[in-house]
Amino acid sequence: MAVKLEDRPIEQVREECIDKLIVNYSHAIISQAAFERRLDEMMAATEHQVLLDLVADLPKEADKQYAEDKQSTFAPSATSAEATEDKIVSILSSNSRKGPWLVPKKLIIIDVLGSVELDFSQATFADTQVEIEVKSFLGSVSIAVPEDVAVVSRVTNILASSEEHAPPQPQHARYTIVVTGMSLIGSVDVSVKRSMRERWVEFANSMREAFGLERRT
Q1: What Pfam families is this protein classified in (predicted)?
Q2: Where are the beta strands (DSSP E) in 120-194?
Q3: Which residue in 39, 42, 72, 180 has the fewest CB atoms around it within 10 Å?
């Protein structure tokens, strides 16, 4: 017997409906305007049936090829052996990690009179929970995350500042970053750089291109 709709995790239902929406958009069954309008409504929906109603008239379902494309885009594979622990040392210098990079399960940052910038918007996570241990003296650490990454800060600030412009538990969180350690006369800032909606739209446009259709921006 199938599980009742209202008893299923709503985020699972939401993702399945978004998959169906993207598939139909990528085959030019609906327009760009209709795709983006329905996507916005799905992201805001709080009821299971509302989500299903938004794709009830769409004929195509997600298939194996779609699932493989989605997996490579949103959850690239990474082995624990190659991403257990890493360290960034910044002394009187600046360091950054951005673009496609592999996030280890634990990242240690030693920042003395320097700056460290971490951009997770295109990163691949080796685990669903990542620890960033900060040891900062007169330094600055900037962390930019996409909308589907939760950030929990447990940093001890001594004559230092800490700003968080990202919700600790976003609605569509896939990963969690726990920031620990100490900042002495420095700063640790967290912000959202890339929304989940932007990632879905970019993926949908890449699917259109795969079928030889014009990419939308």
Answers
A1: LiaF-like_C (PF09922)
A2: 124-125, 129-137, 140-146, 149-153, 156-158, 161-164, 175-184, 187-194
A3: 72
